[in-house]
Design goal:
single chain; 368 residues; alpha/beta; Rossmann fold; Dehydroquinate synthase-like, alpha domain; 2 domains; seven-stranded mixed sheet; 14 helices; 11 strands; globular; binds nicotinamide-adenine-dinucleotide; binds the ligand O=C(O)C(=O)C[C@@H](O)[C@H](O)[C@H](O)COP(=O)(O)O; binds zinc ion; lyase; Dehydroquinate_synthase; 3-dehydroquinate synthase; DHQS/DOIS_N; cytoplasm
Protein backbone atom coordinates (compact mmCIF):
# COMPACT_ATOMS: atom_id res chain seq x y z
CA UNK A 1 0.00 0.00 0.00
CA UNK A 2 1.14 3.56 -0.69
CA UNK A 3 -0.48 6.82 0.37
CA UNK A 4 0.06 9.92 -1.73
CA UNK A 5 -0.75 13.35 -0.31
CA UNK A 6 0.03 16.66 -1.98
CA UNK A 7 1.11 20.05 -0.68
CA UNK A 8 0.23 23.27 -2.48
CA UNK A 9 3.04 25.77 -2.09
CA UNK A 10 3.79 29.12 -3.74
CA UNK A 11 6.53 27.33 -5.68
CA UNK A 12 4.11 24.66 -6.97
CA UNK A 13 2.42 21.51 -5.75
CA UNK A 14 4.59 18.64 -4.58
CA UNK A 15 3.80 15.02 -3.70
CA UNK A 16 4.26 13.31 -0.36
CA UNK A 17 4.46 9.58 -1.05
CA UNK A 18 4.32 7.37 2.03
CA UNK A 19 4.72 3.59 1.94
CA UNK A 20 7.09 0.61 1.93
CA UNK A 21 9.89 0.07 -0.58
CA UNK A 22 10.10 3.65 -1.84
CA UNK A 23 13.86 4.05 -1.38
CA UNK A 24 14.64 1.90 -4.38
CA UNK A 25 12.15 3.87 -6.50
CA UNK A 26 13.64 7.31 -5.83
CA UNK A 27 15.64 7.43 -9.09
CA UNK A 28 12.70 6.50 -11.30
CA UNK A 29 10.37 8.83 -9.39
CA UNK A 30 12.89 11.66 -9.76
CA UNK A 31 13.21 10.99 -13.45
CA UNK A 32 9.44 10.87 -13.89
CA UNK A 33 9.05 14.14 -12.02
CA UNK A 34 11.94 16.20 -13.38
CA UNK A 35 12.57 14.53 -16.69
CA UNK A 36 16.24 15.48 -16.94
CA UNK A 37 19.23 13.40 -15.87
CA UNK A 38 21.64 16.40 -16.14
CA UNK A 39 23.06 18.59 -13.41
CA UNK A 40 23.95 15.84 -10.98
CA UNK A 41 22.38 14.38 -7.86
CA UNK A 42 23.93 15.19 -4.48
CA UNK A 43 22.80 12.80 -1.75
CA UNK A 44 23.30 13.90 1.86
CA UNK A 45 22.98 11.46 4.74
CA UNK A 46 24.45 10.92 8.21
CA UNK A 47 26.84 8.23 9.45
CA UNK A 48 24.19 6.12 11.16
CA UNK A 49 21.79 6.16 8.24
CA UNK A 50 24.65 5.55 5.83
CA UNK A 51 25.72 2.46 7.78
CA UNK A 52 22.19 1.10 7.36
CA UNK A 53 22.64 1.25 3.58
CA UNK A 54 19.67 3.55 2.82
CA UNK A 55 21.66 6.20 0.95
CA UNK A 56 23.34 3.51 -1.15
CA UNK A 57 19.95 2.14 -2.19
CA UNK A 58 18.94 5.66 -3.24
CA UNK A 59 22.22 6.20 -5.07
CA UNK A 60 21.87 2.93 -6.98
CA UNK A 61 18.31 3.78 -7.98
CA UNK A 62 19.51 7.17 -9.27
CA UNK A 63 22.31 5.55 -11.25
CA UNK A 64 19.81 3.13 -12.81
CA UNK A 65 17.70 6.13 -13.80
CA UNK A 66 20.65 7.75 -15.58
CA UNK A 67 21.83 10.23 -12.94
CA UNK A 68 25.40 10.87 -11.81
CA UNK A 69 24.83 10.61 -8.06
CA UNK A 70 27.31 11.08 -5.21
CA UNK A 71 26.79 10.42 -1.50
CA UNK A 72 28.11 12.77 1.20
CA UNK A 73 27.99 11.72 4.85
CA UNK A 74 27.82 14.05 7.88
CA UNK A 75 28.00 13.20 11.61
CA UNK A 76 24.60 12.44 13.13
CA UNK A 77 22.46 14.80 15.24
CA UNK A 78 22.18 18.54 15.67
CA UNK A 79 25.93 19.22 15.79
CA UNK A 80 25.81 18.91 11.99
CA UNK A 81 23.14 21.58 11.60
CA UNK A 82 25.72 24.36 11.37
CA UNK A 83 27.03 26.96 8.95
CA UNK A 84 30.40 25.22 9.08
CA UNK A 85 28.85 21.97 7.87
CA UNK A 86 26.89 23.85 5.20
CA UNK A 87 30.18 25.31 4.00
CA UNK A 88 31.71 21.84 3.80
CA UNK A 89 28.76 20.65 1.74
CA UNK A 90 29.03 23.60 -0.69
CA UNK A 91 32.63 22.58 -1.35
CA UNK A 92 31.66 18.96 -1.91
CA UNK A 93 28.94 20.07 -4.32
CA UNK A 94 31.42 22.10 -6.32
CA UNK A 95 33.78 19.11 -6.34
CA UNK A 96 30.93 16.91 -7.55
CA UNK A 97 30.09 19.36 -10.34
CA UNK A 98 26.55 20.05 -9.16
CA UNK A 99 24.91 22.62 -11.44
CA UNK A 100 21.81 24.77 -11.13
CA UNK A 101 19.74 21.96 -12.63
CA UNK A 102 21.16 19.49 -10.10
CA UNK A 103 19.14 18.01 -7.25
CA UNK A 104 19.97 17.51 -3.57
CA UNK A 105 18.48 14.43 -1.91
CA UNK A 106 18.24 14.47 1.89
CA UNK A 107 18.28 10.86 3.14
CA UNK A 108 17.84 10.89 6.91
CA UNK A 109 16.04 12.52 9.79
CA UNK A 110 15.25 16.13 10.52
CA UNK A 111 18.89 17.11 10.88
CA UNK A 112 19.86 15.92 7.42
CA UNK A 113 16.64 17.37 5.95
CA UNK A 114 17.13 20.80 7.53
CA UNK A 115 20.84 20.95 6.65
CA UNK A 116 20.63 19.58 3.10
CA UNK A 117 17.53 21.69 2.42
CA UNK A 118 19.36 24.80 3.62
CA UNK A 119 22.32 24.04 1.40
CA UNK A 120 19.97 23.46 -1.54
CA UNK A 121 18.20 26.76 -0.80
CA UNK A 122 21.45 28.72 -0.93
CA UNK A 123 23.87 26.93 -3.28
CA UNK A 124 24.02 28.84 -6.59
CA UNK A 125 21.11 30.89 -5.13
CA UNK A 126 18.94 27.83 -4.83
CA UNK A 127 18.60 24.44 -6.47
CA UNK A 128 15.98 21.71 -6.20
CA UNK A 129 15.89 19.21 -3.41
CA UNK A 130 13.80 16.25 -2.29
CA UNK A 131 13.21 14.88 1.18
CA UNK A 132 13.70 11.17 1.83
CA UNK A 133 12.83 10.89 5.54
CA UNK A 134 14.07 8.00 7.65
CA UNK A 135 12.79 9.02 11.11
CA UNK A 136 9.26 9.25 12.45
CA UNK A 137 9.95 12.82 13.47
CA UNK A 138 10.75 13.66 9.87
CA UNK A 139 7.05 13.30 8.99
CA UNK A 140 7.11 16.85 10.39
CA UNK A 141 10.50 18.18 9.29
CA UNK A 142 10.26 16.97 5.68
CA UNK A 143 7.01 18.85 5.02
CA UNK A 144 6.49 22.55 4.55
CA UNK A 145 9.87 23.78 3.35
CA UNK A 146 11.38 25.12 6.58
CA UNK A 147 15.11 24.48 6.25
CA UNK A 148 17.98 25.86 8.27
CA UNK A 149 20.88 25.53 10.65
CA UNK A 150 21.57 26.40 14.27
CA UNK A 151 23.86 29.12 15.59
CA UNK A 152 25.70 28.62 18.85
CA UNK A 153 23.26 31.09 20.40
CA UNK A 154 20.10 29.37 19.27
CA UNK A 155 18.23 26.79 17.21
CA UNK A 156 17.24 27.37 13.60
CA UNK A 157 18.33 31.01 13.67
CA UNK A 158 19.47 30.94 10.04
CA UNK A 159 17.32 29.39 7.36
CA UNK A 160 14.87 29.72 4.52
CA UNK A 161 11.52 28.57 3.25
CA UNK A 162 12.53 26.28 0.40
CA UNK A 163 9.94 23.61 -0.40
CA UNK A 164 11.17 20.26 -1.66
CA UNK A 165 10.11 19.02 -5.09
CA UNK A 166 8.90 15.82 -3.43
CA UNK A 167 8.83 13.88 -0.18
CA UNK A 168 9.46 10.15 -0.66
CA UNK A 169 8.89 8.48 2.68
CA UNK A 170 9.80 4.80 2.88
CA UNK A 171 8.19 3.65 6.13
CA UNK A 172 10.30 0.50 6.17
CA UNK A 173 13.30 2.61 7.19
CA UNK A 174 11.49 3.27 10.47
CA UNK A 175 11.91 -0.38 11.47
CA UNK A 176 15.58 0.28 12.33
CA UNK A 177 14.89 3.38 14.45
CA UNK A 178 16.00 3.04 18.07
CA UNK A 179 13.01 3.19 20.42
CA UNK A 180 14.21 6.48 21.85
CA UNK A 181 14.10 8.09 18.40
CA UNK A 182 10.71 6.52 17.66
CA UNK A 183 9.36 8.04 20.87
CA UNK A 184 10.91 11.42 20.04
CA UNK A 185 9.04 11.36 16.75
CA UNK A 186 5.81 10.52 18.57
CA UNK A 187 5.97 13.95 20.23
CA UNK A 188 5.39 15.65 16.89
CA UNK A 189 2.64 13.13 16.05
CA UNK A 190 0.99 13.99 19.37
CA UNK A 191 1.52 17.69 18.63
CA UNK A 192 -0.26 17.36 15.29
CA UNK A 193 -3.12 15.48 16.94
CA UNK A 194 -3.34 18.19 19.60
CA UNK A 195 -3.47 20.91 16.94
CA UNK A 196 -5.93 19.37 14.55
CA UNK A 197 -7.04 15.77 15.03
CA UNK A 198 -8.98 15.08 18.22
CA UNK A 199 -9.77 11.54 17.12
CA UNK A 200 -6.11 10.70 16.67
CA UNK A 201 -5.36 12.26 20.05
CA UNK A 202 -7.96 10.05 21.72
CA UNK A 203 -6.59 6.97 19.96
CA UNK A 204 -3.05 7.79 21.07
CA UNK A 205 -4.24 8.29 24.63
CA UNK A 206 -6.06 4.95 24.57
CA UNK A 207 -3.37 2.89 22.86
CA UNK A 208 0.31 3.70 23.16
CA UNK A 209 2.40 3.28 20.06
CA UNK A 210 5.81 3.49 21.65
CA UNK A 211 7.68 1.53 19.02
CA UNK A 212 7.53 0.73 15.31
CA UNK A 213 4.11 -0.86 14.71
CA UNK A 214 4.72 -2.44 11.27
CA UNK A 215 4.56 -0.98 7.76
CA UNK A 216 0.80 -0.49 7.39
CA UNK A 217 0.22 1.03 10.82
CA UNK A 218 3.27 3.27 10.42
CA UNK A 219 2.02 4.44 7.02
CA UNK A 220 -1.42 5.31 8.45
CA UNK A 221 0.09 7.10 11.44
CA UNK A 222 2.48 9.17 9.32
CA UNK A 223 -0.28 10.04 6.84
CA UNK A 224 -2.69 11.19 9.56
CA UNK A 225 -0.15 13.38 11.33
CA UNK A 226 1.13 14.71 8.02
CA UNK A 227 -2.41 15.68 6.99
CA UNK A 228 -2.64 18.11 9.93
CA UNK A 229 0.68 19.70 9.07
CA UNK A 230 -0.18 19.97 5.39
CA UNK A 231 -3.45 21.79 6.10
CA UNK A 232 -1.66 24.35 8.29
CA UNK A 233 1.24 24.90 5.89
CA UNK A 234 -1.08 25.30 2.92
CA UNK A 235 -3.01 27.98 4.82
CA UNK A 236 0.10 29.95 5.80
CA UNK A 237 3.31 28.77 4.16
CA UNK A 238 5.49 31.68 5.32
CA UNK A 239 4.28 31.73 8.93
CA UNK A 240 2.57 35.07 9.04
CA UNK A 241 0.02 33.63 11.46
CA UNK A 242 -1.53 30.18 11.57
CA UNK A 243 1.70 28.29 10.87
CA UNK A 244 2.90 29.38 14.30
CA UNK A 245 0.48 26.75 15.64
CA UNK A 246 3.08 24.15 14.67
CA UNK A 247 5.34 25.76 17.27
CA UNK A 248 3.21 24.74 20.24
CA UNK A 249 5.61 23.40 22.89
CA UNK A 250 8.58 24.78 20.96
CA UNK A 251 9.11 28.15 22.69
CA UNK A 252 10.13 26.37 25.88
CA UNK A 253 11.15 23.16 24.07
CA UNK A 254 13.79 24.74 21.84
CA UNK A 255 15.37 26.42 24.88
CA UNK A 256 15.43 23.10 26.74
CA UNK A 257 16.90 21.28 23.73
CA UNK A 258 19.67 23.86 23.36
CA UNK A 259 20.45 24.08 27.09
CA UNK A 260 20.77 20.29 27.20
CA UNK A 261 23.49 20.70 24.52
CA UNK A 262 21.31 18.47 22.35
CA UNK A 263 21.66 15.54 24.74
CA UNK A 264 17.86 15.54 24.75
CA UNK A 265 16.50 14.83 21.29
CA UNK A 266 14.10 17.31 19.69
CA UNK A 267 11.02 15.28 20.55
CA UNK A 268 12.00 14.84 24.20
CA UNK A 269 12.62 18.57 24.61
CA UNK A 270 9.35 19.46 22.90
CA UNK A 271 7.48 16.99 25.14
CA UNK A 272 8.81 18.90 28.16
CA UNK A 273 7.99 22.18 26.45
CA UNK A 274 4.41 21.03 25.84
CA UNK A 275 3.98 20.29 29.53
CA UNK A 276 5.32 23.66 30.68
CA UNK A 277 3.24 25.46 28.06
CA UNK A 278 0.11 23.48 29.00
CA UNK A 279 0.64 24.59 32.60
CA UNK A 280 1.13 28.17 31.41
CA UNK A 281 -2.13 28.01 29.46
CA UNK A 282 -3.89 26.79 32.59
CA UNK A 283 -2.33 29.52 34.76
CA UNK A 284 -3.39 32.18 32.23
CA UNK A 285 -6.96 30.93 32.34
CA UNK A 286 -6.86 29.79 28.71
CA UNK A 287 -7.10 26.04 29.35
CA UNK A 288 -8.63 23.83 31.99
CA UNK A 289 -6.95 21.28 34.23
CA UNK A 290 -8.28 18.39 32.16
CA UNK A 291 -6.56 19.66 29.00
CA UNK A 292 -3.24 20.04 30.80
CA UNK A 293 -3.56 16.57 32.28
CA UNK A 294 -4.58 14.96 28.96
CA UNK A 295 -1.45 16.35 27.34
CA UNK A 296 0.95 15.05 29.98
CA UNK A 297 -0.96 11.75 30.12
CA UNK A 298 -0.56 11.00 26.42
CA UNK A 299 3.13 11.95 26.51
CA UNK A 300 3.83 9.70 29.49
CA UNK A 301 1.87 6.92 27.78
CA UNK A 302 4.35 7.13 24.91
CA UNK A 303 7.37 6.98 27.18
CA UNK A 304 8.18 10.67 26.82
CA UNK A 305 9.66 12.88 29.55
CA UNK A 306 7.49 15.67 30.90
CA UNK A 307 9.72 17.50 33.39
CA UNK A 308 12.66 19.58 32.13
CA UNK A 309 16.06 19.45 33.82
CA UNK A 310 16.51 22.06 36.55
CA UNK A 311 18.30 24.62 34.38
CA UNK A 312 19.06 28.03 35.81
CA UNK A 313 15.87 29.92 34.87
CA UNK A 314 17.83 33.03 33.82
CA UNK A 315 19.53 30.82 31.21
CA UNK A 316 16.15 29.62 30.01
CA UNK A 317 15.07 33.25 29.62
CA UNK A 318 18.29 34.21 27.83
CA UNK A 319 17.82 31.50 25.23
CA UNK A 320 14.07 31.89 24.97
CA UNK A 321 14.47 35.62 24.25
CA UNK A 322 15.87 34.70 20.82
CA UNK A 323 12.73 32.80 19.75
CA UNK A 324 11.75 33.93 16.26
CA UNK A 325 8.05 34.36 17.12
CA UNK A 326 8.59 37.18 19.62
CA UNK A 327 7.63 40.71 18.70
CA UNK A 328 9.97 43.58 19.60
CA UNK A 329 9.14 43.90 23.27
CA UNK A 330 6.97 40.96 24.13
CA UNK A 331 7.04 37.22 24.15
CA UNK A 332 4.79 35.23 21.83
CA UNK A 333 3.82 31.68 22.74
CA UNK A 334 1.52 29.16 21.10
CA UNK A 335 -0.48 27.57 23.89
CA UNK A 336 -2.73 24.51 23.97
CA UNK A 337 -6.23 25.70 24.83
CA UNK A 338 -8.06 22.40 24.45
CA UNK A 339 -7.48 19.17 22.56
CA UNK A 340 -7.83 20.18 18.89
CA UNK A 341 -7.07 23.85 19.45
CA UNK A 342 -3.98 25.96 20.13
CA UNK A 343 -3.86 29.77 20.34
CA UNK A 344 -1.20 32.34 19.57
CA UNK A 345 -0.72 34.39 22.74
CA UNK A 346 1.25 37.65 22.76
CA UNK A 347 2.56 39.42 25.83
CA UNK A 348 3.42 36.41 27.99
CA UNK A 349 5.51 37.62 30.93
CA UNK A 350 8.62 36.16 32.49
CA UNK A 351 6.77 35.97 35.81
CA UNK A 352 4.00 33.83 34.31
CA UNK A 353 6.49 31.51 32.64
CA UNK A 354 8.56 31.21 35.79
CA UNK A 355 5.50 30.16 37.76
CA UNK A 356 4.56 27.49 35.21
CA UNK A 357 8.16 26.29 34.94
CA UNK A 358 8.47 25.93 38.71
CA UNK A 359 5.15 24.13 39.01
CA UNK A 360 6.17 21.53 36.44
CA UNK A 361 9.62 21.13 37.96
CA UNK A 362 8.37 20.65 41.49
CA UNK A 363 5.33 18.60 40.53
CA UNK A 364 3.12 21.13 42.27
CA UNK A 365 0.79 21.22 39.30
CA UNK A 366 -0.38 17.75 40.27
CA UNK A 367 -1.89 19.10 43.45
CA UNK A 368 -4.10 21.55 41.52
N1 LIG B 1 12.08 21.80 9.34
C1 LIG B 1 11.09 21.47 10.16
O1 LIG B 1 9.93 21.79 9.92
C2 LIG B 1 11.40 20.66 11.39
C3 LIG B 1 10.35 20.05 12.10
C4 LIG B 1 10.66 19.30 13.23
C5 LIG B 1 11.99 19.12 13.60
N2 LIG B 1 12.97 19.72 12.88
C6 LIG B 1 14.38 19.50 13.24
O2 LIG B 1 14.65 18.12 13.05
C7 LIG B 1 15.72 17.72 13.90
C8 LIG B 1 15.35 16.45 14.63
O3 LIG B 1 15.07 15.45 13.68
P1 LIG B 1 15.21 13.90 14.05
O4 LIG B 1 14.56 13.63 15.34
O5 LIG B 1 14.81 13.14 12.86
O6 LIG B 1 16.75 13.81 14.37
P2 LIG B 1 18.04 13.25 13.58
O7 LIG B 1 17.99 13.60 12.16
O8 LIG B 1 19.19 13.69 14.40
O9 LIG B 1 17.84 11.66 13.71
C9 LIG B 1 17.84 11.09 14.99
C10 LIG B 1 18.85 9.94 15.10
O10 LIG B 1 18.31 8.80 14.42
C11 LIG B 1 19.27 8.28 13.49
N3 LIG B 1 18.49 7.70 12.40
C12 LIG B 1 17.85 8.34 11.41
N4 LIG B 1 17.13 7.47 10.69
C13 LIG B 1 17.34 6.26 11.22
C14 LIG B 1 16.84 4.97 10.92
N5 LIG B 1 15.94 4.78 9.96
N6 LIG B 1 17.26 3.93 11.67
C15 LIG B 1 18.15 4.13 12.71
N7 LIG B 1 18.62 5.35 13.05
C16 LIG B 1 18.21 6.39 12.31
C17 LIG B 1 20.11 9.47 13.12
O11 LIG B 1 21.38 9.07 12.66
C18 LIG B 1 20.20 10.23 14.45
O12 LIG B 1 21.21 9.70 15.25
C19 LIG B 1 15.98 18.88 14.84
O13 LIG B 1 17.13 19.57 14.42
C20 LIG B 1 14.75 19.74 14.68
O14 LIG B 1 15.01 21.10 14.94
C21 LIG B 1 12.71 20.47 11.79
O1 LIG C 1 6.97 23.54 10.32
C1 LIG C 1 6.86 24.36 11.23
O2 LIG C 1 6.45 25.51 11.02
C2 LIG C 1 7.22 24.00 12.62
O3 LIG C 1 7.24 24.86 13.49
C3 LIG C 1 7.57 22.58 12.89
C4 LIG C 1 8.39 22.36 14.15
O4 LIG C 1 8.07 21.05 14.63
C5 LIG C 1 9.89 22.37 13.90
O5 LIG C 1 10.57 22.02 15.07
C6 LIG C 1 10.47 23.61 13.27
O6 LIG C 1 11.82 23.39 12.92
C7 LIG C 1 10.44 24.81 14.17
O7 LIG C 1 10.79 25.91 13.44
P1 LIG C 1 11.22 27.30 14.08
O8 LIG C 1 10.74 28.30 13.10
O9 LIG C 1 10.56 27.41 15.42
O10 LIG C 1 12.70 27.28 14.18
ZN1 LIG D 1 9.50 20.43 16.15
Amino acid sequence: MTTTLTIRSAAGTYPVVIGPGILSEVGSRLRAQTGDPDGGVFIVTDDTVHALGYADVVQQSCTRAGYAATVTVVPPRDESKSLEMANTLYDRMLDAGIRRNGVVLAVGGGVVGDLAGFVAATYLRGIRFAQIPTTLLAHDSSLGGKVGVNLSRGKNLVGAFHPPIAVWYDVQTLASLPEREWRGGMTEVIKHALIGDKTLFAELAATPMDRYPGDDAAERLVARAAAVKIAVVEADERESGQRMWLNVGHTVGHAVEQLSHYQLNHGEAIAMGLCVEAQLALDLGLADTETRDQISFVLVRHGLPTVPPAFDFTEVVRVLNLDKKHRSNEWTFVLPVRIGRVDIVHGVTETALHKAWQQVLTGEENQK
